[in-house]
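Lines hold sequence, tokenised fold; shown next:
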Amino acid sequence: MDEFTRYSIVYAIVGIVVVVGLPMSLIFLRKRKREKLRRRGIKTYGH
């Protein structure tokens, strides 16, 4: 029974990390992509 509770706690922690981390990483990547595009746009307009 102890192993079962230990595994359930581990899975719960992993699940929370995935549920919280996935949206945050998507937002971060989208923001970074936007910055890259903006920088590229400024470079092309500057010349």
DSSP finds one helix and no strands in the chain. The chain has a mean pLDDT of 82. The radius of gyration is 20 Å. The first helix runs from residue 2 to 46.
